Amino acid sequence: MSSAVPDPSFERELAVAMDAGRQAADVILGFYNAGSTGTYAKGDGSPVTDADLASDAVIRRVLTGAFPDDALLTEEGARDERRLGERRCWIVDPIDGTAQYVARTGLFDVMIALVVDGRPVVAVSVHPVSGRVHAAIRGQGAWRYDSDGNRVRFSIQPSPTPPRLVSSKWYGGRDSSAALVRISAAVGASPPPVLEVGFQARAFDATERTYDAFIGLPPPSRISIAQE
Fold it and tell me: Three-class SS of residue 158?
């Protein structure tokens, strides 16, 4: 931990982030189970739903209520330029995987993190469908919480040989198939599937682990430049 950080434990911040994430997950699940969510297109063409906006409102209320002086950056909110001059900033994705939410695959999460002096110090992800929570404090480790609130130390076990690799359309997987094949061959693994979702911490959990390494690549043009 940096000596500039006033409270190296961040236990209160973790507790508040978990509370915000769980409340947001409950709201999201209400929309999801009712199948009544309105869906709209953002300026970049990506979807946003009533559940995204409701989750955003809940998280804002909880975080600003506990830490009114902290800056806040959320995917669905107006960009707060004040954050650029603040030491502490919360970064939030009210629903990570909105397209999966709309498709009703269950593969979506609530993501909340606190950055202090440019470094992430607290992170929380909540999976609304299962109620499972993953959380971490910088320098102290990570934990898994089940729907009953039981806390278990989270660690990534050694991978099998060869490792199971995976990529995502959001991290260049669709545009870098040749590079993915080369990487896989170098470690003796099969070419990785390209997921429709991004990185999910819970996918590395021993209780549901399905792969061992996540590969994200820059655009092919940048790979070619690096090889030259």
Answer: coil
